[in-house]
Every structure is written in structure tokens, then in C-alpha cells.
Amino acid sequence: MEAMQKLTCNGLTWVDIQNPSKKDITALKRIHNLHPLVAEELLLPTYRPRIEMYDEQMFLVLHFPIRAKRGERHTSTHEIDFIIGKTYLTTTHYGEVAVLKKLYNKLTGNESLCKQNFGSNSGYILHYIISELFTMVLEELDKFAVEIEKVEALLQKKHNAEEIVEAISSLRYELLDYRKALKPQQTVLNSLKERGKIFFENHMGPYLSDITGEYVRVWDALENHKDTLEALNNTNESLLSSRSNEIMRRLTIMAFITFPLTLIASIFGMNTRWLPFAGNQNDFWIIFGIMIFGVLFMFGYFKSRHWL
């Protein structure tokens, strides 16, 4: 096994396997009498969460999003498979899951914490691990909220529009990845709550309900971030539209103000036999004065209409 951690407390065992091989799965089949369908599932990625109950086992697949590192665009998703027996829990995953490693290190050597979270059956361990995973997601979403506040501050300062659009788009992409990973889990966790009462007995009901409660907290945070980003995006689009309209208004006014100059220049530039003021000693200053008068007249008109 590339990376295996084993912890036993109160007669219960938690085994965490990173990057399981066929040899590892064969060993699990022998030790836990693993169902053939479960063994087959463990060797291939499962793209949607699921829960299956067998005679003495329950098989659960969940996905947890991990925020993209700086410079990467998309959020990665870790699939974690749970093989649940009455007295054991095995978790398998591909790639390192920092939360599980941290959790194992925290429990190792801390007998009181271990006894507190390893109750009379593996349901207690399952509750503890999933709660910690959802806590990790909530902590990432808290960082997400800080970044949203930064975008909001940029928007209030009327910062560079392109930079704001890019920041909002990046956050919306990440949020979409989170939603795609977590949305399908609602049905599975509701099913876990009902089937778990049968598998672990009714006294585990509050713990299983707490797992769905953790999920609801995460989903509510996601919805809140989604609404905030949509509001910021709409506000930014309104500001951009307002700025564009203002620019077009000013350009239109400038075009109308300079219209007399163009008209007069065109008239006196015509190749005709006779033009008024042409040939006069002060013809240039007369025509120039007419142009200035036209510009001032148009400027005064727009000013009186409060268009300037």
C-alpha cells in the first residue's frame, strides 16, 4: 500500500488508504469479506456520490472540493470512498487528502479524544470524519468570502472595470465547481440518515442528522456567495453600462457642438462663382467669427437644456 494509516480505539478500527492498488483491494476483500461490487467500485473513479447497503456493510462515496492553487483555474475534487462495517471504517482515496492526514495525526496519541469520537460503533467515526471534511469546506468558503469582500471594495472605489470583471468571473468559476461537487450529495446524505438508523440502530439518528445539518450549512454558504456574486456582477454591469452611456452622450454632444464648424467650412469650401464675404478684406475673420458664434450658440443651447 502506498500510504496506509490504521487507528484502533474502543474496539473500533479506522483504516485510511491512499492510492489503493488491486493488491490492496484483494487484502480488503479477505479481511472484511468485501462485496465484489464494492471491490470493483474501489478500483475506478465514481463521478457521482452514492450509497449502497449490503449484508454487513455500507458503501458510501462522497466528493469534496478543494480550492485551486494560485495560478490554477479550476477547483479540484477529491473522491472519498467509505467502507463501513459495524466495528470498522475504511476510507480510500486517490491523492493526499490533507484533512484526513491531519485528523489521523490529531487522534494518534490523544487517547481521550480518540475515546470521545470512537463510540460503540463505526457510525461515530463516520460522523466525526465527515463533519471534519465539511468543516474544511466551510473554512475554504470563509476565505472565499474574504475575496468577495475585496471585489466589493474595488467596486466601491470604481477600480479598473476589466480587473473587476476578471475577478468576478474567476470567483464564479470556482463557485460553480463547488456547486457541481456538492449539489448531488444532498440525496445521498438524506439516504444515509435513513439507512444509517437501520444499519447502526436508532440511537445514531442525531449524529446522522448532524451530518446533513453540516451539509446544509455548507450549501447555505454557497448560496449566499452565489447571490452576492450575482449582485456584484449586476452592479458592475450597471456601472459599465452607465459609463458607456455617459461617454456616448458626451461624444454626441461634442459632435453637435462642432457641427456648425463642419457646415460652415463645407459651405465656404464649395467651388462656386460667388460666395458671401469671399474676397473681402476681412473675409477670414468674418467666417471665423461666424464659426465661433455657431459653436457658442450650440453650447449655450445644450447648457440651457441641462445636457451639459
Automatic annotation (TrEMBL):
Gene Ontology MF: a single term: magnesium ion binding
Source taxon at top rank: Bacteria
Keywords carried by this UniProt record: Cell membrane, Membrane, Transmembrane, Transmembrane helix, Transport
Subcellular location: Cell membrane
Originating species: Candidatus Ryanbacteria bacterium RIFCSPHIGHO2_01_45_13
Protein name: Magnesium transport protein CorA
Spans traversing the lipid bilayer: 251-272, 284-302
Pfam families in the record: CorA (PF01544)
